UniProtKB/TrEMBL annotation:
Family matches, as InterPro entries: aa-tRNA-synth_Ia, Ile-tRNA_ligase, Rossmann-like_a/b/a_fold, Val/Leu/Ile-tRNA-synth_edit
Keyword ATP-binding: yes
Phylogenetic classification of the source organism: Eukaryota, Metazoa, Ecdysozoa, Arthropoda, Chelicerata
Keywords: Aminoacyl-tRNA synthetase, ATP-binding, Ligase, Nucleotide-binding, Protein biosynthesis
PANTHER family (UniProt xref): ISOLEUCINE--TRNA LIGASE, MITOCHONDRIAL (PTHR42765:SF1), SOLEUCYL-TRNA SYNTHETASE (PTHR42765)
Gene Ontology biological-process annotations: isoleucyl-tRNA aminoacylation; mitochondrial translation
Protein name in the entry: Aminoacyl-tRNA synthetase class Ia domain-containing protein
Transmembrane domains' residue ranges: none
Gene Ontology CC terms, in alphabetical order: mitochondrion
Gene Ontology MF terms: aminoacyl-tRNA deacylase activity; ATP binding; isoleucine-tRNA ligase activity
Aminoacyl-tRNA synthetase class Ia domain span: 147-271
Length: 289
């Protein structure tokens, strides 16, 4: 230990950025940092964490452009050695290499990190430019005054709200009177697309955007899990008809067995299982015919 100092001294101190020697940065106090874990000093990245962002605003730190682009790569504004590198893989290794001469001590540390529920991949939290609507009491009247009477409009690429945008699809794709014969989707859309479409249509036209709903179930694997690309449990139809590389493990059931499975498990709301024992039963039924 070279020196002992209180937090009040550190709060008024600055340090030099290890990669940008002409950049002087401030030590910031934060009530989310504790002494019972780690050193009491943590790296702060206002563009990549809500607490860090709030703390930076509290102390008057101006927000700079995010150094990570929408593809999860270091942006063109970064150092040449980092530009275009994936942040969580090659980019992380490159940063470690650049900081090698500035590291006092290294060690392993287990901590929590956010993962995407669908892809099961780590999530990069990053700041982005956004716009907000101030919903004052007189917003309704102001909105009416702002309606363009005669103007050429260009469809924008921004998403206001995923359910509002998709819930208005009937207005964009259906001819007058904007009512489809049937809306077809999974059972989970009762509180999703079906509902958002119904609410927007009733509010604007007084009627539903569809005459009928058809809700199908989901294909389940042998363990009863919904098949999805993120779980990697999707079965290719050709795997059923032609089999896999190891025919003992993944036998070929043929086209007729697949057809029988489809016909036998036609569903209007129930989930449909597909597994070897289910296909074997279908094979027995085909053989009897």
């Amino acid at each position: 230990m070279l020196i002992t100092s209180g937090s009040d001294i550190l709060s008024d101190s600055t340090y030099t950025h290890p990669l940008y020697r002409d950049k002087e940065l401030r030590f910031l106090p934060g009530d989310f940092v504790t002494m019972d874990k780690g050193t009491g000093l943590v790296h702060s990245a206002p563009s990549h964490g809500f607490e860090d962002y709030q703390n930076a605003l509290k102390h008057g730190i101006a927000m700079e452009d995010c150094l990570v682009d929408e593809e999860g790569r270091f942006a063109s504004s970064c150092r040449l050695e980092l530009r275009g590198l994936p942040v969580l893989t090659e980019g992380s290794d490159a940063v470690t290499k650049l900081l090698a001469n500035h590291v006092v001590r290294t060690g392993s540390y287990t901590h929590s990190y956010p993962y995407d529920w669908r892809s099961k991949q780590p999530v990069i939290v990053r700041s982005s430019r956004q716009w907000f609507i101030n919903l004052d009491d007189d917003m309704r009247q102001r909105a009416l005054l702002g309606v363009c009477k005669d103007a050429a409009l260009t469809r924008g690429q921004d998403i206001m709200d995923i359910w509002l945008d998709s819930g208005l699809s009937w207005k964009m794709v259906l001819p007058e009177p904007c009512q489809a014969d049937v809306y077809l989707e999974g059972l989970d859309q009762v509180r999703g697309w079906f509902q958002s479409s119904l609410l927007t249509s009733v509010a604007l036209t007084g009627k539903a955007p569809y005459r009928k709903l058809y809700m199908h179930g989901f294909t389940l694997d042998a363990e009863g899990r919904k098949m999805s690309k993120s779980l990697g449990n999707v079965i290719d139809p050709e795997m059923i008809t032609k089999g896999g590389k190891d025919l003992k493990k993944d036998p070929a059931f043929g086209v007729d067995v697949l057809r029988w499975w489809v016909a036998a498990h036609t569903s209007n709301h129930e989930n449909v299982p597909v597994a070897k024992h289910v296909l074997a039963e279908c094979q027995e039924n085909v053989a009897k015919v």
